[in-house]
Amino acid sequence: MTAVQTAGPSHTAAPNVFELTCEDTKITYVPVGFGGRPRLEYDGPMGTHVFEGDEIQTLRSARGLEVSVTLDRISILRTITLTVFLPDLAFEDATTELTFETVGIHATRRRATVSDIGEGSTKPLELTGLARNIEFQNAGSTVLL
C-alpha cells in the first residue's frame, strides 16, 4: 500500500486521514479505510494499539465527531479509554491538508467492588491535528478512502 497525495481533494471535500499529536502520543484515524471500515492507530503512554471496525465507537456531537476506543481492560477491575474530538472540516480549494487544534481524554474507570464504590479519573490531552485528503494505491489500482 502506498500513500499518494493528490493534487486536490478527492470526491468529497472532507479529510479522510487525521493525524493527532501531543507530547509522547501519536494518533492516526482513518474514518473509512480499506473494506469500508474505520481504523485508529495509537502510540503513546498506554502502548501501541491498532483498532478497526467495531472496536471504534463514534458519536456525532456539537463539537464534531467523538471517536472512542478502549485502550486497556483489566479483568472486571479497570477500563482505560481514549476519546478524541475531531472538528467538522472541509477543504475550501485544492488544499489537501489542514492543521487544527483539538482535545482528547484518557479516562480510567475502576469498577465498584462489593465493599466500595467505583471511581474514575481523566487526563486531558491538548492535540495538534493535521487533516489530510490522501489516495491509497494498492497493487496498481487506486482506492479512494
Describe it.
With 145 residues, this protein is mainly β. The protein has one domain: Lipocalin, CATH 2.40.128. It is 0% helix and 62% strand. The chain is built from no helices and 12 strands. The protein has strands at residues 2-5, 17-22, 25-30, 39-44, 47-52, 57-61, 64-74, 78-86, 97-110, 119-132, 134-138, 141-144. Strand 3 (25-30) and strand 4 form a beta hairpin. The protein starts with a strand and ends with a strand.
Total helix count? 0
Structural class: mainly beta
Shape field: globular
Helix content: under 10%
Q: Please report the total strand number as a whole number.
A: 12
Give the N-to-C terminal Cα separation. 12 Å
CATH topology (fold) name: Lipocalin
CATH classification class: Mainly Beta
Q: List the helices and strands in order.
A: EEEEEEEEEEEE
Major sheet details: 9 strands, antiparallel
How are the secondary structure elements laid out?
Elements lengths: L1 E4 L11 E6 L2 E6 L8 E6 L2 E6 L4 E5 L2 E11 L3 E9 L10 E14 L8 E14 L1 E5 L2 E4 L1
Antiparallel strand pairs: 1-11, 2-3, 2-10, 3-4, 4-5, 6-7, 7-8, 8-9, 9-10, 11-12
Q: Which short descriptors sum up this protein?
A:
145 residues; mainly beta; Lipocalin; nine-stranded antiparallel beta sheet; three-stranded antiparallel beta sheet; 12 strands; 0% helix
